[in-house]
UniProtKB/TrEMBL annotation:
Domain of life: Bacteria
Name the UniProt record assigns to this protein: DUF6383 domain-containing protein
Location of the DUF6383 domain: 382-455
Pfam families: DUF6383 (PF19910)
Matches recorded under InterPro entries: DUF6383
Amino acid sequence: HQIMATTNPASTDAVTSFYFKENNEFTKGEDLTCYYALINNNGLNKAGVVDNDEDALLRAQVLTETRTSVFAIAKSDAPLYRRFNNTALGESATDGRDSLRFFENVRKEYLMDENNREGGLMDANVNYVGMWTANKATGLAFQIDTAVINRDNGDIKPQYLLSVAHNDFAGTDTIPCTEADGTHRDENGNFVDANHCIHAIPGKAAFERGKYVVSFADSAAANGYKKPYTDVTAGYVRVGFVEAIKQADTLWVLTDEFKALANDKIDFARLQAVNDSLVATGATKIKNVLTGVNHKNYTWSFRYVNPEAAGNVEEEGNANKFLFESNNYDGEKIAPENGSWLKIQNGCVVLTKNPSYFSNAKTGGDGALIFNVENKEDDQLATDNEEIATSEVTVIAQQGAVRVANAAGKKVVVSNILGQTVANTVITSDNAVIAAPQGVVVVAVEGEEAVKAIVK
């Protein structure tokens, strides 16, 4: 009888288990290796390889046979998931932030910020990830950043954040109190240095801000698996973008209260209070911790289709192609057989439903998409121009209007694609909403370069 490993045993297959009986030791240099015989727990058989079998198949042998096959046991270093640190492919050896284009390798269509309005694939309130040919978008690159690496089993299953439309905050230094030394006190009246005086202006820590790629699985469940978080009612979960801030090991998804704020106006204590309030009412939290090996709706892992071939890749191709892995349906935190991967359904980028098996997904058998990447220097991030930052001024396209932040007292002119002026005004607040027609408009803020935006 042949001994084999399978995830789909036949009804006639008998599942068996073995004892590892130490048989002998072998020393090479300073390394001592133990070799074990695989003894069936029935006490009658052992696993072995016969000499006249060129395939070296593992077979059930009689325990009393003179010849015994022995095996060393070692940790497999074959990667299950892709890690973007291969310098031969132009990637960062230190797992630094990079920008990559993701394309499926059958039709070579690219992931992008969904802009197929005519095809009915967009929504007024939800920003989706789309897929189309390269000429259908002004930018195709996604910023990729490590969420879990070198910890929490991150060497086995690296997890990444994907994002576009960045408006990062460099942080500010504390402005110390200018009074004479020896006079500085804190709020409790204790003597402190100038930086900790109650008259000092505290600095703000740096953070990253952008649109992050997420699975809408939680939103779909809360919404009864209906649009806009699925392709159709009771359909597949869609994938899209949320505006968020990453600071240290936390990703804060911004609600409307915070989206209009400039970076230096973001208050993390207020974000925490809003999160606590949402959690208390059973609503979806906005504070998401990035650590841990568990699957998350806001991190992504890239599962090798052919892990046995992915060890020493020197060029992009079949050896390192992968699936976008989001979640599992079988409870396995690492390398689930029954999992959730990107696919296309009704023209939408969605996640495979249960049941979806890796053995089928890696062949495209259940519609799962198989990807490779392009790494282009100084590539343009994917965007639908929904939000454009011009120095500290931000122009945000929304339903039937553009929102201009941080431009109080400045003249703003909005023109349509034909050059006709549709608005000409001096705004009086740092969060002004100006009505605009649907489609591409040009927004010119006094003292800034004009930018294009797509009004929904």
